[in-house]
Amino acid sequence: MTDGWNARNAPPPAGQPLPQNASWWSDALADPWRDPYAPAQVVLPPPPPGGGPAPEPVTDPDAPRRSLTPVLLICLITALLAGGLGGTLGFVFAVRGGLADTGGNPLGAPPAEPSAAVNRAPDSLAGVAKKVLPSVVTVRVTGAIGSGFVVSANGYVITNDHVVESGSDNMSVSFSDGTTAKATLVGRDPESDIAVIKVAKSGLTPVAIGNSDAIAVGDPVLAFGSPLALVNTVTAGIVSALDRTIQSGDPGGTTRYYAAIQTDAAVNQGNSGGPLVNAAGQVVGVNSVIRSLGTTETDAGNIGLAFAIPINQAKRLAGDIIDHGKARRTVIGAEVATGTRTVTGARLRSVQPAGPAATAGLKAGDVITKLDNHVLEDSTDLIALVRKYAPGTVVPVEYRRGAKTATASVTLVADSN
């Protein structure tokens, strides 16, 4: 039994109707699309008499097709023109009024005028740099390059002694505006590493001098100078430590002592003699020494350990050089044992009769463990800290004599040499 999907009844002769008892699906046999015996050609009926609407034409699937290349080319050109026009209009609108949201409201702040962009607040880092840079100079001496800063309108400049020690011949300075001038050596103090030169130019802008005793660890600072001959360089950092005692110098040469301001501002060769400046634009130190992992000066580079001479000390020494041609060295009136660290503190090898230490009751063999509340590790600490103070300063000391500890007040004096 079957439902008729595969029935195969022979069709009646042409022109005869289907039998009356033909099944309901038997008309499918007369459908040319379903009759397997229908010819492959489709014959359309003639148009109806009387001019009725013509039947829709049937497209021959085997007829050759028209090329789409012109259409695609027109679309591509149209898209390019539309994109270019849209980009141009977008740029114009963005420049003139900024972007806008769908409601027509501008997005973001209007672009700042160039003149307003360069006008930083005076108390910003950029404002401080703008203020100080005209007073910073690059010092060029035969075989050396360093930095310095103007401290008077008539041309006095403070720098490091080791910048000018190679000789004062052909010394010159250059300013941040690119101008240059000849310079001469006024005087130098090798042990403190301070020197003063005079620039042959008037009407200069001196720096503002701060108070190095008023700074604290963590204060922001800027270092100015010409590291690696890169003039007009400014770096930023903080005060990392105070009264960091350092001894430096080549064998057979001058031994220099520093009770320095330590900073992590980037300082390299060529920064020497440049100013260390606080957030108010006041000089608080003279950049002088760096610590490096390099084994030679050529290999030395910044690793965040730089040291500056406190400006209170540098200003006093520079004033002595300008007024008297040489700096007064502050002493305690005793000679310390060096080259040994068998004890903590500075052991006094000898005491000058009637000198400051002797007057305060100190004797040879005493070990000074504190000076003005600074703990001393060795003799270098004592020498560096004493030279930081001005002659006439009274400082408290703590010392050990045998098993006993005592205190005294010492009035420091200037060396008679």
Mean pLDDT: 83
Strand order within the widest beta sheet: 1-2-3-6-5-4
- The ordered H/E elements are HHHEEEHEEEEEEEEEEHEEEHEEHEEE
CATH architecture of the domain at 211-324: Beta Barrel
What share of residues are in beta strands? Answer: 25-35%
Proportion in helices:
10-25%
| CATH fold field value of the domain at 211-324 | Thrombin, subunit H
Indicate the topology.
Elements (H helix, E strand, L loop, with lengths): L68 H29 L16 H4 L7 H8 L3 E6 L2 E7 L5 E4 L1 H4 L7 E3 L5 E10 L4 E6 L8 E2 L10 E6 L7 E16 L7 E8 L11 E4 L3 E9 L15 E5 H14 L5 E2 L2 E3 L9 E6 L4 H4 L7 E5 L2 E2 L3 H10 L5 E8 L2 E8 L1 E2 L3
Parallel strand pairs: 7-12
Antiparallel strand pairs: 1-2, 1-4, 2-3, 3-6, 4-5, 5-6, 8-9, 8-11, 9-10, 10-13, 11-12, 12-13, 14-21, 15-16, 16-17, 17-18, 17-19, 19-20
